From TrEMBL:
It comes from the Bacteria. Residues 57-186 form the DUF7168 domain. Residues 8-43 form the DUF2786 domain. The keyword Transmembrane helix applies. This is Uncharacterized protein. Keywords: Membrane, Transmembrane, Transmembrane helix. It holds the Pfam family DUF2786. The chain crosses the membrane at residues 65-83. It comes from Marinomonas spartinae.
Length: 232
């Protein structure tokens, strides 16, 4: 649980106590809530904002095609995203995990993490199959993934449409990101063969149209949407 979320939950509890029938208890709780909100620059209308964390990316940096996916998800959900990386010990050595944090209103942030968790494994599987089938290099696979994700994200936006960030999310982003360095994105590099690069991108774009997404509807019933079946 993030530090902000812990404080938000504490403030919610204090605000609830401020409605107590005991005047002394109510006044004390209200004073503590106001003090915490001032200290951590949390407004009342920001208390409904949460963070969600999709599956980690097993490396220290975010690649360009992963950034494209995150941007598309932000555009459909009205959230913003932060990126962090942390080391862990695995098999006697240090390995890094990158984690995307989606921040927004509860339902929006949950949709964002859900979308990432559904699409990203399909991308990983497509990459492995591409490399196995064609004996492709890592650079060629990155180009394939870029084409794949651009196509899949276009369909994702067609399904949901774009959604502006709510005012309280915009305000929260301004406070949260003050002084935070922007994430460094690893650009997709050329393999040195322009014709082959184009073929990798084109094949990825064609395969990305077959990406599928399970979407939870407003009544919490799930239905399957085939992104490739939605017209551009």
């Amino acid at each position: 649980m993030s530090m902000d979320k812990r404080y938000q939950e504490k403030i919610r509890k204090l605000l609830a106590l401020s409605q107590s029938d005991n005047p002394h208890e109510a006044e004390t709780a209200k004073r503590q809530a106001v003090s915490l909100m001032k200290k951590y620059r949390i407004d009342t209308d920001e208390l409904d904002i949460i963070s969600t964390y999709p599956r980690p990316i097993k490396r220290k940096t975010i690649k360009e095609y992963e950034s494209i996916l995150v941007s598309a998800i932000m555009s459909i959900s009205g959230v913003y995203a932060l990126h962090g990386a942390r080391p862990r010990i695995y098999g006697g050595r240090i390995v890094w995990d990158s984690r995307v944090e989606f921040i927004g209103l509860e339902r929006d942030a949950e949709l964002a993490a859900y979308s990432f968790d559904v699409i990203y494994p399909q991308l990983e599987k497509a990459r492995k199959e591409f490399q196995k089938t064609y004996g492709a290099s890592a650079q060629q696979a990155d180009l394939y993934c870029k084409g794949w994700i651009v196509s899949a994200c276009r369909k994702l936006v067609n399904v949901f449409g774009k959604r502006d960030k709510p005012e309280e999310v915009v305000k929260h982003k301004a406070n949260k990101q003050e002084g935070v360095e922007p994430t460094k994105i690893k650009d997709t590099k050329s393999s040195g063969n322009r014709g082959l690069d184009f073929n990798c991108l084109t094949l990825g774009h064609a395969h990305g149209k077959n990406a599928s997404l399970n979407v939870a509807t407003t009544d919490q019933q799930e239905k399957q949407l085939r992104i490739g079946g939605v017209s551009s």
